[in-house]
Amino acid sequence: MAGQVHDLEVCDKELHEKEVEESERHLAIVLEDISFEKLFHYDFLRNSKFMHGWKNVRESVNKEKLVESFIKAQVFFYNREIEQVNYERYVKWLAENKRDVENTVLFKLCTEESHRETSASNSEDLSSELGNYPQSFMELVEMIQRGEKLPNTLDLDIEPLNIDPTPAIRELPLKPWEIEKPS
To answer: Residues in domain Peroxisomal membrane protein PEX14-like KPWE (predicted)?
Structure first.
């Protein structure tokens, strides 16, 4: 009888471990799907850094490999700037979810001949309209070190009060070695 109970406990434990593994696997897939959705809907057009890089890449890519190169550029940029995404799994996800990158507005705008000339001026207009935001934390630190005004910040005219500090009323506590030990 005790042996049967032990066997049931072992089976129950193994079943529970399998359920946990399965739920962890399912959670990983869901999280990856969310990452892929965020990548697919990321607004690359408004990112002048991506547009500048894509313009340079686009000029050296064959027309036949334009879609593949565009997806690679998106994943490369997204991996560096936002979060890590696996390229092969993303391409598989695009196919499984019937996401045709070639028919997206983003792809069409990024590959049009006329857009090549206007994208630089549009990104300059957009950056001047929104302010010259730093693209990374290091750029922000460098702006502060150079003493430049940060975009969309207020200049608070804070001046010292030029008065003497209020003296402490309370006596400072004694340090352990200053305390006299009773003998």
So the answer is: 133-178
